UniProtKB/TrEMBL annotation, chain A:
Pfam families: MnhB (PF04039). This is Multicomponent Na+:H+ antiporter subunit B. It is found in: Cell membrane. Belongs to the CPA3 antiporters (TC 2.A.63) subunit B family. The chain crosses the membrane at residues 12-30, 36-55, 67-88, 100-133. GO terms for cellular component: plasma membrane. The keyword Transmembrane applies. It comes from the Bacteria. Residues 5-128 form the Na+/H+ antiporter MnhB subunit-related protein domain. The keyword Transmembrane helix applies. It is a multi-pass membrane protein.
TrEMBL record, chain B:
It comes from the Bacteria. This is Multicomponent Na+:H+ antiporter subunit A. One of its GO terms (cellular component) is plasma membrane. It is found in: Cell membrane; Membrane. One of its GO terms (molecular function) is antiporter activity. The keyword Nucleotide-binding does not apply. Coiled coil: none annotated.
Length: 137, 770
């Protein structure tokens, strides 16, 4: 599938799709979207890149094995739940929010970090599975 | 206090990094941890002696009533001192006992985790956190028993112990939950005030049975006792620490702790007396059929635990006092005897009591420790054991009925226990040294100092009981709501029936010791009776269960994915059809349907076309692509019916599924038609009936009145409580965030599973040998 058209296109599509996935992630709180879909879109972006340029190039681009994204994401999600316990003496996973929203990103709260954790885990899971399966072919 | 409890767990994490130095230069470092904790807890001495109770409270999951509340009262205080004090000596002893072991750091890690768990268990005032620490002790005990994981016997014993205590843990959870519901609190110190309410509840019997189950399994009561002799496969420091001094007393602790909540009740008292009585006698008699030192000690420990349960069952003030003193007495002498055994084993390489003799010449300090412990064990005057034994007899003598029976039971048990003590603490050291042991080296100081310290404490307390009377023993009774002001621990009571009983015990033990020599004959005699022991009965049940599950697995888990799917769908169809045929009115309210639009018709046509294409496709790739089309068509339906979140996710998932399929299909052999005509018809009928049923079900659901309360709550509160306007996402990340947390964990586990399955390349010798 290494056609020149797809390869050229994927070079532009990858950053755009990644940006789009982050957009979807951030927008999730008010409008359709969220960490899960965002993570899926981001992984599709990488998979597309792998189709066009070969798995080796994609792995080089990723630098680390996507498996490491899973503990990272889980840790972020877990810590966002733990923050209220440690910092404010509230029960686990109480939603805490900054009073004023920040431009572009919107309201900042623990739920946002939780969603970012989900976003990262989903990417880690999907890419690990797909890379493992296609490597052992 | 939280830091003190968690210190062991933190230390075990630290060991990951400093492990290699612990094996070489820093051998004594781990022992500093229990020493520090001992000092920390010892500073509460004056406060406890003054009758104070130290409490600390951390909110945890308060919405479920599960909090980390810790309460240091008399009972907890005695246990913390035993855990940290004996812990220190055991840590010290271990540094020499397992000196050249490759996994010494790992051993210390497990031991520290155990210590933390045990401290948490005795300090918890919340029964849920008590349960948590209870389980943690079982788990750390599993790793410690199976420490020599290359030996099959020790792996098996570890599993036995985990199995039995694990069942107990589940029972404890059940008991704790019901108790919490009945008492309307999970805090033990508050339950005491609800005693009348709990006692009058119809659930009382159930609570008591569950709590008994937990305590009897943990504290090795008959018929669950057999995991404890098995647990002796663990290195001796473990047997000393977990399986005589601390962990096995957790069950006794639980009963003691709950006495003011559940006690003073005929069912409670009779059951405990019965089980404790059977256990103490059964195990005590068993000691004469052993010649392995640790085997003898294991059974005498079970017997001692039986005495404790029995005393708690008697439930009088005297009996509880006896139990409180006996916990301390037993911990001191039994830990000594275990350490002595360990040293003998390490130096001579055998634990067979019938060949050991004359070791006094080689290891005098160990012999002294053994003698002193045997004195205390036999209850000879001037030892704390004497006081303990006297209290037991006082407890039984002052009962309102069955005095003779229960007292003689106690006397017989004690005779056998003191015989066991002589056998372990005295026999190996006296007599002529056999030739084979003449080259034995004298053990180093770390191998004899800990038992000497423990044994001497037993004598010191025996001479000066006032040392422990006010500071340790009285607060224990106060912590189970008994007025303890008039208690006096005395060495000399005058010429009383109690004295006569004590003398009988001592003489009886000595007689047994001189008349009965442990021989192979006795051992093989008991092995013959092993067939009817609880252990072999349970083993048979387990092998029956294994045969059954093997058959079950072969029938249903036959490795063909298509069979799994058809079985699942078939069962689902049967269940649904049964329910739907029973009472359904089949009214379809056409007026409630919205009008069919052109888009929907187009999508439906695409879908049906794709379905037929999938079924009749001649290549796998075509079938996968077609099933992808079905998925996308469903996405479109979601869009039409305004579920954009769902549509987006479904869209992305479908794309990935097709990609995954393609990746996998690449590697499969050429497409073959494996199923014949009949099978296809059968599958077709199954699929159609499933689809049909789902349609009927959907229509039925539509006809039901919808409970909108939940969705209304979410819609109204999404912005107010969670600052979000997308209700779906707010539910995912906030309202039901914990669900999502677990879901992403499951996802990660699945990915790791795929990774492991495909990447695992076993080398020849690692493959399972058949």
């Amino acid at each position: 599938m290494k056609t020149i058209i797809l390869r050229t296109a994927s070079n532009y599509l990858l950053p755009i799709l990644l940006l789009f996935s982050i957009f979807i992630l951030l927008r999730g709180h008010y409008l359709p979207g969220g960490g899960f879909v965002g993570g899926l879109i981001a992984s599709i972006a990488f998979v597309l890149h792998a189709f066009a340029n070969g798995l080796k190039d994609t792995k080089k681009l990723l630098k680390i094995h996507p498996g490491f994204l899973m503990p990272l994401g889980l840790a972020i999600a877990f810590l966002s739940g733990l923050l209220p316990v440690l910092g404010f003496g509230e029960p686990f996973m109480t939603g805490l929010w900054l009073e004023y929203p920040i431009p572009v990103i919107g309201a900042i709260g623990t739920a946002l970090f939780f969603d970012i954790g989900v976003y990262i885990v989903v990417q880690g899971v999907v890419l690990t599975i797909i890379i493992t399966i296609s490597e052992s072919a | 206090m939280l830091i003190a409890i968690l210190a062991g767990i933190l230390f075990s994490i630290l060991l990951l990094f400093i492990g290699k130095w612990v094996k070489t230069k820093l051998q004594l470092l781990p022992a500093l941890l229990p020493l520090g904790l001992f000092i920390y807890f010892a500073q509460f001495f004056p406060a406890i002696a003054a009758g104070e109770v130290i409490e600390q409270h951390y909110n945890w999951v308060s919405s479920f009533g599960v909090n980390l509340s810790f309460r240091l009262d008399g009972l907890a205080f005695l246990f913390t001192l035993l855990i940290t004090g004996i812990g220190f000596l055991v840590f010290l002893y271990t540094s020499a006992y397992l000196k050249n072991n490759d996994y010494l750091d790992r051993f210390y890690g497990y031991l520290s985790i155990f210590m933390a768990a045990m401290l948490g268990l005795v300090l918890s005032d919340n029964i849920m956190s008590l349960f948590l620490f209870w389980e943690l002790t079982s788990i750390s005990s599993f790793f410690l028993i199976g420490f020599n994981n290359k030996s099959e016997a020790s792996r098996k014993s570890a599993l036995w112990a985990l199995g039995i205590t694990g069942i107990g843990g589940l029972l404890l959870l059940a008991g704790a939950v019901i108790l919490g519901i009945v008492a309307d609190t999970y805090t033990i110190s508050e339950m005491v005030n609800q005693k009348a309410l709990i006692a009058s509840s119809p659930l009382y019997i159930l609570i008591a049975i569950f709590i008994f189950g937990a305590a009897f399994t943990k504290s090795a009561q008959f018929p669950f006792h057999f995991w404890l002799p098995g647990a002796m496969k663990a290195p001796t420091p473990v047997s000393t620490y977990l399986h005589s001094a601390t962990m096995v007393k957790a069950g006794v602790y639980l009963l003691f702790r709950l006495t003011p909540v559940l006690g003073d009740n005929t069912f409670w008292n009779t059951t405990l007396m019965l089980f404790g009585g059977i256990t103490m006698l059964y195990a005590a008699i068993h000691t004469i059929f052993r010649k392995d030192l640790k085997g003898i000690l294991a059974y005498s420990t079970i017997s001692a635990l039986g005495i404790l349960v029995f005393l708690i069952g008697l439930g009088t003030k005297e009996a509880l006092l006896a139990a409180a003193v006996f916990i301390l007495v037993h911990a001191l002498y039994k830990a000594t005897l275990f350490l002595v055994t360990g040293t003998i084993d390490l130096s001579t390489g055998t634990r067979d009591v019938s060949v050991l003799a004359g070791l006094k010449k080689i290891m005098l300090p160990v012999a002294i420790a053994g003698f002193l412990a045997a004195l205390s064990n036999a209850g000879i005057p001037s030892s704390i054991g004497f006081i303990g034994k006297d209290l037991i007899y006082e407890g039984t003598l002052q009962l309102p009925n069955n005095v003779v029976l229960l007292t003689s039971l106690a006397v017989i048990t004690n005779i056998f226990i003191s015989y066991a003590g002589y056998l372990v603490g005295v026999k190996p050291f006296l007599g002529k040294l056999p030739e084979r042991f003449e080259m034995t080296k004298t053990p180093e100081i770390r191998l004899w100092l800990p038992p000497v310290i423990l044994a001497s404490l037993g004598i010191v307390f025996g001479f000066v009981p006032s040392l422990i009377q006010d500071s340790l023993i009285k607060p224990i009774l106060s912590s189970v709501a008994i007025d303890a002001s008039d208690i006096h621990l005395k060495i000399w009571h005058g010429f009383t029936p109690v004295l006569a009983l004590s003398v009988t015990t001592i003489v009886g033990g000595l007689l047994l010791y001189f008349l009965l020599k442990p021989t192979d004959k006795l051992v093989s005699f008991s092995n013959k009776l092993e067939v009817v022991s609880p252990k072999s009965i349970i083993e048979k049940l387990i092998s029956l269960f294994e045969t059954f599950s093997g058959w079950w697995t072969r029938v249903f888990q036959n490795g063909y994915l298509r069979n799994y799917v058809s079985v699942i769908i078939f069962v689902a169809v049967i269940l649904m059809a049964y329910r739907l045929l029973q009472d359904t009115s089949y009214v379809i309210d056409y007026s409630s349907f919205s009008k069919l639009t052109v888009y929907e018709v187009v999508v439906l046509v695409i879908m049906v076309g794709a379905i037929f294409f999938t079924i009749f496709a001649k290549s796998r790739l075509a079938a996968v692509a077609a099933s992808g089309v079905i998925g996308y068509a469903i996405c479109l339906l979601f869009v039409f019916y305004s579920a954009p979140d769902l549509a987006m996710t479904q869209f992305a998932i479908d794309t990935l599924t097709v990609i995954l399929f393609v990746l996998v299909l690449y590697r499969l052999p050429k497409y073959l038609v494996l199923s014949d005509y009949k099978q296809r018809i059968r599958d077709g009928i199954l699929a159609c009936s499933f689809g049909g049923l789902i349609s009927v079900l959907a229509l039925e659901v539509l006809a039901q009145p919808v409970n909108e309360e939940i969705s209304k709550f979410y819609a109204e509160n999404a912005y107010i409580l969670a600052h979000g306007k997308n209700v779906v996402n707010v539910i995912l990340v906030d309202f039901r965030g914990t669900d999502t947390m677990v879901e992403i964990s499951v996802l990660a586990i699945a990915a790791i599973g795929v990774f492991a399955l495909l990447k695992l390349r076993l080398r020849g010798h690692e493959r399972e040998q058949k």
